[in-house]
Amino acid sequence: MRRGAFLWFLAALGCGARMPSVPARDRNAEGPAPQSLASAVPQSVGVPPQVEPDLRPQTHGADGGAHADVDAHSDADADAEDDTAEHVAADEDPDLFADAEPSPVANTPPPVRVEPPPSTPKTGALALSDAELRRKVFASLAQLGSISVGRPSAGALFNGVQLASGARWKVSDPGNAWGTRETADSIERAIGQVEAHFAGTPPLAIGHLSARRGGSLAPHRSHQSGRDVDLGYYYKTALPFYTRATADNLDTPRTWALVRAFVTETDVEYVFIDTPLQRVLKEHALALGEDAAWLDDIFQAGGTGRAPLIRHVAGHDTHIHVRFFNPIAQELGRRVHPHLVLRGLIQPRSYHTAYRAKKGDTVNRLARRFGVSAAAIQKANRLRTKRLVKGRSYLIPRRGPVTLGSEPTKIPARRVPSHGPSRPVPESPVDAAAKG
Ligand SMILES: [Zn+2]
């Protein structure tokens, strides 16, 4: 065992009583599940096992997008812009936090994982050959587990799991709370960590993940491939979902515990949080004695990293948006996409539809109408001019609903701190008020 792994092992031992290190699903197996993920999928691939970490340096460019795996940046910006317009139906239920019983607080710093975890294990469905995958797609698609096809802004979801409300969270729109198994497990794991530190934490509001089969989900541009989730903030008092969080009403210790768990224990691609709230969380983390260099790397606010994980996108003072990498579901999506197309379950990346020209139609008019270039229409129909003949049928090039890369999915190593907080985690202001 290497030194890093050994240190982590020691840390885990030392805090084992308080900090269960088993995957969230295993904990559920020990007793009645406090919250259940609807078992819409007969089988799933589940949490990736611990394998050799990927220690290669991150090569995100200054624009964050040099990497093949991160066509994400432009994507993120595009997605993010649209996210500013989003407004999920807020849960106005005044009883949202009514059951919350504040209780004693764990004052133990969390164990620090000093080794980045694994990516893209070749197990489960990913171990199958292309021929086997094709057979499964046609004969027993459900057995493949969750499949995330394409990008968050141009994608689809197969064999998703539906997040159901439970003791630790409350789903505001169950019909659009579908994600991959990896996404659902990541959410459960991070929220479970908040409870591990702050027993009696009230349920967190959860907004949209994706539609059952993914694809466009108003008012978002992203949330299409089962890898995005909108979550509420933890507040000092019971407030409805989508209440604007401020330095005054934010339950900072709980919210930091949540964000920390997402960054260190799940494969996060982005976390969108407004800058003023980033500052509040970062200041809190610094006061705890968290690794300052790590904080500068992950936070955009006052940070020095070239590719911060926690980014400002306007509008994210009412909710947190988390986008996960799914080492299994994403790679599976890339590999089975051609077979899904063959089976007719999804449109190809590009295809043609026929259009019969009406009086007055020109290439330019059709280009505007179908959102493709005039040149593409001319090329598809071998036209030298932009004139069309009324009554004649023309091919219109269309783009399919998903965009996906041809290279194997690469998941960046998790960014973990070099050490845990040096000071005890203070109790949440909610709990302090309840005692006082
Ligand atoms: Zn969102």
Description of the molecule:
This protein is an alpha+beta fold. It folds into 2 domains: 22-336 and 406-435, Muramoyl-pentapeptide Carboxypeptidase, domain 2 (2-Layer Sandwich), CATH 3.30.1380; 350-399, Membrane-bound Lytic Murein Transglycosylase D, Chain A, CATH 3.10.350.10. Helix content is 30%, strand content 11%. It contains 12 helices and 12 strands. Strands 7-10-8-9 form a 4-stranded mixed β-sheet, sandwiched between helices. Strand 1 and strand 2 form a beta hairpin. Helix 4 (130-139) packs across helix 9, helix 6 (252-265) crosses helix 7 (275-287) and helix 10 (363-370) packs across helix 11. The chain is elongated and about 80 Å long. The chain starts with a helix and ends with a helix. Residues 1-119 have low confidence and may be disordered. Zinc ion binds at residues 83, 86, 220, 223, 228, 230, 321. Zinc ion (ZN) binds at residues 83, 86, 220, 223, 228, 230, 321.
Q: What is this structure, in a nutshell?
A:
This protein has 436 residues and is an alpha+beta fold.
C-alpha end-to-end distance: 47 Å
SSE arrangement, N to C: HHHHEEEEEHEEHEHHEEHEHHEH
- Overall structural domain count: 2
CATH topology of the largest domain: Muramoyl-pentapeptide Carboxypeptidase, domain 2
Unreliably modeled segments: 1-119
Q: What's the pLDDT, averaged over the residues?
A: 77
Report the bound ligands by name, code or SMILES. zinc ion
